[in-house]
Write a structure and sequence with these properties.
The chain is mainly α.
């Protein structure tokens, strides 16, 4: 028997409850700045970059007027699909999607004074080179919050995509004949 899915309030409560303990896991390597960075990543991951951005949800609503940025993401992905509710893959896709949106907006807003996308890319490289440990702590915090979300939903691994389920259907059809 599968446990009931957590609602948005339960996800939020768990995110707030586990942010500091998750951050404390990096303390031996990165000290208090790592704790703060990993905890902040955990909060951002759970409250703003949740696997539930593929639905009309609390995390989507928290984006305010900018929630429109997530409309294509919602339209392209089914809720609880392999691409949104998978460990590692779901977080990587959301972060990549957000990075692409930032670059497109930077290019579109460049005539109004926004930095060019290439400069943002180079600044990101510089951040990585100077603060690798903290960047990793933030990303691990975002991913850890995603795992918490998936575990609360009762299944850290989503169902097999339809494309891969075809083989089973063929076998069942052959058995019926």
């Amino acid at each position: 028997m599968q446990p009931p899915l957590a609602n948005g309030r339960a996800h939020d409560r768990a995110t707030w409850l586990f942010a500091l303990p998750a951050g404390l896991l990096v303390w031996p390597w990165l000290g208090w700045s790592g704790v703060g960075t990993a905890s902040a990543g955990f909060l951002i991951g759970g409250l703003l970059l949740s696997p539930d951005l593929d639905t009309h949800s609390r995390p989507t609503a928290r984006w305010g007027a900018m929630k429109l940025l997530w409309w294509p993401y919602r339209r392209l992905l089914r809720h609880r699909s392999l691409l949104s509710h998978s460990p590692l893959l779901g977080t990587a896709l959301r972060l990549t999607y957000l990075g692409c949106i930032v670059m497109v907006l930077a290019a579109a807003l460049q005539p109004f004074g926004a930095p060019p996308p290439l400069r943002l890319w180079h600044q990101g490289e510089g951040l990585w080179q100077q603060h690798q440990g903290l960047v990793l702590a933030a990303v691990v915090g975002v991913e850890a919050s995603s795992w918490l979300h998936l575990m609360q939903d009762g299944d850290p691994m989503p169902r097999c995509p339809r494309l891969l389920r075809r083989k089973g259907r063929r076998r069942r059809r052959a058995q019926r004949r």
